Amino acid sequence: MTMKNTVQAVALWSEQAPSHSITAIMITDDQQTIVTGSLEGQICLWNLSVDLKISSRAILFGHTSSVTCLAKARDFAKQPFVVSGTENGEMCVWNVTNGQCIENAMLPYRHTSISYYHSSFRMTGEGWLLCCGQYQDVLIIDAKTLEVLHTLKSQSSDWIICMCIVHSTRIQEDSLVAISVTGDLKLWDLSSSINSIEEKRNVYETESKSLELRNCQAVRFCTYTERLLLIICSDCWKIFDYCDFSILGTEANSSGQSFAGGEFLAANRLILWTECGHGSIYQLVNSGLSKVIYPADGGMLKETVTPQLLCCTNVAENKSFSYVMGFLNERKEPFYKILFSGDACGRISFWHIPDVPVSKFDGSPKEIPIAVTSTLQDNFNRYNSTPEGIIGHFYAAVTSSLYIPSLDKLVCGCEDGKIIVTFALHAIRARLLDDHSLLRGSLPHRVFEGHNGCVTCLLYPHTESDQFDPNWLVSGCQDSSVILWDVFTGEILQNFTFQAGPVLKLLVPPAGYKTKVHLSVCCVCSDHSVALLHLQQRLCLLHARKHLFPVKMIKWHPVEDVLIVGCEDDSVYVWEIETDILCKMEFQTYIQRHYLYRQQYRHTGTLERYETGEMAKAILTSCEDSRALMTDSVLFVFQDVQRVKSPSYKTSSSYKLGTLSYTLAHPEKSSVKSTDTRQSQSPFAILPVKTKWTSMNFHVLLFDLEKLLEYLLLSQVNGLKSINSFHSYDAVKSAKSSTEKRTLTLKRNKTAGSLYQMNGQAKNASDQSISMENNIVKSLEEGSVIKRQKKKSSKKASIPASTKIDINIICDTAKLLLSCLFPWGVDKELDNLCIKHLGILRLQYPVSFGLVSNESHVSLMLPGWNHANYDAAKEHTLKNLFSKKVMDLSNKYINVIQSGEKNTGNGTVGTEIIIHLLGKIFFVSRMIKIPVGSEQIGRNNSRQKLEPFRNKGKNSENFTSSFPALYGVSQQNRHKFHFHDTDHTSLEKLISSWRDQSVEVIEAVQAVLLAEVQRSTKTLRRTSISKHPDTKVKNRMREAHPLPEPDKTEELELQCLKDIPVKTSLTLETHDNSSKSAVFQEAENVPDKHVSEEAESADDVKPTPWMSKVCFCKVC
Amino acid sequence: MAATASGAERKVLEEEFKWLLREEVHVVLRQLQDILKEASKRFTLPIGAIDGQMKQENFILGSSTMDQVKGVLTLQGDALCQADVNLKMPRTNQLLHFAFREDKQWKMQQIQDARNHVNQAIYLLTNRDEKYQFQTGSEVLKLMDAVMLQLTRARNRLTTPASLTLPEIASSSLTKMFTPALPGDILVNFYINLNKLCLLVYQLHALQPNSTKNFRPAGSSVMHNPGSMLEYNNQRFEVSHVQKVECVVPWLNDALLFFTVALQLCQQLKDKISVFSSYWNFSPY
């Protein structure tokens, strides 16, 4: 849970919308959201306005296979949750207001239909999901936990293909009507079985009748008569009497289109729809009730209903296939009846169904036109105001891209075969921001020419494993060639050519593998062949071309030189990797199995074994840990990125000391939370996302707020008044002796030129944090020096740290994030102040944010997300406001924090304010995301902790006195974090009230940012008028005012500021003060909670030496 | 390759692709449907049979190496409607005989699922005959993916029997179907493995509560080896003997063959479509 709390995702859409072949569609109970599930596995949320306007809102990633069904998962008025089921058995509960994944599960069941059932007075818990699908009988799944509670059993079990819950006031019993694949109608009592089900007793159907219907599609109960049952088969539909299941009417399919579903419009009218998207309305001429009224028939099965076709719906001219449809009765207001459909091309269509449908005068059916229709692409065309790729318009369309975190480079492969390498951050800034200094044409870049066809995949193997030369870049092309480049010079080191169709994927074998695949990459081609390329020797080791089906999985045998290829038909091919032609004899024993054949290829590769079924599974599981999956799905890309972001944990042993420099954490801490993805090397990453069926789709920017803060603060602490705060920081972080470090940092401060040497020393030193900090302060030029040096050294075996955290980059990243978050267009003056003083820049267009629910569930806002928030007229003025609520929240926030405080937010240089703002954002986003319970505990604990500190503030050895600790340690140490935040009580209260009102994180963040920016710029204006060089005076002034809670960060800024001109000899002294000051401040803030307005409270606690040292003037 | 394709070349390719969608796809789909219908026939659907009575088939289950267990099973579609099991106890040489109760039959879920999956695949292909015009390559690919998914599942159901724990087998309602009732120390399980109908008979012996033997309950498995332990009804048992007898069901063999051929056909069609994709530069084709 930890990592996701601090990651802020921003989507960069391209002009092409992600493909979204709708396989399931529903409209939520509040009738404001359309939910669609797709073949690609994503779920889209669409806004539906009162006047039936459709605009896309968000796309939810998380499923790995196609969505088969959607259903509501709670009482919608209370919790706007929807559940989705997929082809491979994943289930996920989503909050449709913000796209958050509430719960997810993987069950071995493929559902085709889910119905939510809740009986508030008889049932404990959140209700049930009744599920049917490609398994026997009906499953009852807990709507909250997604665990299988029970099964509704049947005497002759078979798959249930459709069902509906019958709720009848007349019968006083909720029942489930279901039809099996063989056409048996089954009826289970629901409300009277609740107890039995909760006690896990067997529940069998109360009635079962063979209707001998084939290919049933849907069953519907008429709520108007509470009598009729509509059963729709692909070739006909029938009306049954619910009392005795006798047939009342039937109508065969005349159009040749298969029926897909239907619904009762009224007591004697019904609407049917087909797989081809056609709807038709029928009138039941003779009411089915007649038979009951005249029982003289003696229960004879006489057809008493004759349907008459009244109306037809019209399908759009752009024809698609496989439609899924639904009907919405009684739209709240205005009173509409709507037939809706979604098709394989991703088009949503709506039809108004008149309240009283009538046929034409001549009796022929009337045609109902489409009322509204929309696709994702329509929305993209309308709202996505920068319809260009990630690198702009210089080149042909980008077909593949790659982000190299260690170099901060973005590599884009284009349609015309060119590969463009740019600085990632520059590219993003140019793309997003209204930046005059960055002329878009002058984006620094390098073009690699070598491919003739479109570049299909890119790989930077050094990111995956340190063994690879950091110069190597591998690209695959549509013309079946693979080129090995020098990423720095653009030189072609080797060109491999196959005759195997487009290269689909480039993979790196697991790092632990030592023998022949060492320094090789795997290349999967579209003819299902796999090639193993040795990069060092520039040699194709193996080209395995026997596979009949697409490659699903590649594994390496841990001991022998064997490549194991798993295909989509579940067969397995075992290939011997040989660099020489001589076949090794020891393999003979390995081969003694059935299904075996060998085939020698020209010079590469011997098929050792071919297996299917159980044996294939056994082989795959035998090398569980050495695999590389073929993954197209976005989900894996997300997981991938987290893996990429934490490379130091993959194989800790194989990493050189130098690489340890990206981990900030303690050795013991890292071992405990070795899976924690938070330990990323860079607070910023670009994630190229490809969805099925399409080429390059879009990019996701990931900002790790916490990392960002950590690095910024560290650089502050280090770079400006380094030794001491470093020391204090270190005292918190590790118990190691700091003398060596101190000298190191000192050296660095004095001689920036000797950085590389420093780095070498750092490598020798066992403490990672030193080298990390060294890395942090490297400036751009220094970075490039290192790069060059590294290039040289890379020829020798070991490679130094590949990650350089460049403070300029970090700072730019922070500004970029703030630029994205800031509500531009709310206040013109404020906008200008921001641009002038904060260095954050206006956005070119509203940004699509993402919400990361957990490591595999992400929702991204789509272009047009903001359309529903305000009417079109106002749209261009309100540029980047997440919702109207933000202004409200922002004002509330200002009211809360303004209590008695006036002198904060001094107009300092950009960085400090940015740190301050980021700190606030971080705090708020964490607060909102923390579940209520844990936060309470945290608070209690911190109160307890607080006591001793209040009393003996000076004994603060283990107390976090510098801000890196404040924000950085917090993740591992929530209590500590909350400790610091207890002084935010009023703020905390406000934010937890926001959380209770389910204010979305992004709203809160934007509101706080707006408020804080307003505050800081206010003072900025003031300070620019009157500058006070006298620190003491200021401090006195400050003393007069109790410290308002958000001042912690500012305080640091002040300290930092003050330390700028101070010589190193002085800094030791200031350090002591600063560490104390933080303690005092903490202590002081305790009373602050109770009497926030009282000026004396500060004095009550302590005479404050820090006050005399602190200056908030930026000039002194 | 694609980028260098000349205009004329492109035109030819485009024509070829149109032909593929218009003609070739339907040829393949026709073939596919024929194969699947053959496969489906093997599962003898209950609906459509003339007298509503399905054909019954008898299978004599035996093993070449041992003769302790003999079984005569009667399969009717997806259900085992009769079963006669003769068991010679290993030590006492006592002969035991069990049969299904008259009123009971046992559904072979694997067969039922395989049948349903094939029928789903067939259903996907209905309405896609010569009259239907495919608009894009991706439409064909999507259809093939859906069909292949069903076929893969159908095949997997037959090739991978459920792995169960011993208590699951013991508590299964299968044990209650026999007359005379199975003794407490005997467990039976039926399943399909590839083309074979298999019967497993476990003989248990109770472990003494004060036994020094380290009790380790066995996990899920298709077949448990002697020595596997279980706890059921608060008593601990150990498997002493396992007997497996099996019999080839010819029509399952056919069905599996049809599945494999159909899958390959689908993949080939997909590959044909994909060849053209490279000329449309990875855009939706």
TrEMBL record, chain A:
Disordered: annotated span: 1071-1100
Listed SMART domains: WD40
SUPFAM superfamilies, A to Z: WD40 repeat-like
WD repeat positions: 15-56, 60-104, 448-495, 544-579
The entry's keywords: Phosphoprotein, Repeat, WD repeat
One of the record's GO cellular component terms: cytoplasm
Domain WDR72-like alpha-solenoid residue range list: 886-1097
GO BP, sorted A to Z: protein localization to plasma membrane
Record bears the keyword Phosphoprotein: yes
Alphabetized Pfam families for the sequence: WD40 (PF00400), WDR72_alpha-sol (PF23123)
Coiled coil: none
Name the UniProt record assigns to this protein: WD repeat-containing protein 72 isoform X1
Organism (species): Microcaecilia unicolor
TrEMBL record, chain B:
UniProt subcellular location: Cytoplasmic vesicle, Secretory vesicle, Synaptic vesicle
Cellular component, GO, one term: synaptic vesicle
The organism's place on the tree of life at top rank: Eukaryota
Pfam families named in the record: Rogdi_lz
Main location: cytoplasm
InterPro entries in alphabetical order: RAVE2/Rogdi (IPR028241)
Family: Belongs to the rogdi family.
Protein name as it appears in the record: Protein rogdi homolog
Classification of source organism: Eukaryota, Metazoa, Chordata, Craniata, Vertebrata
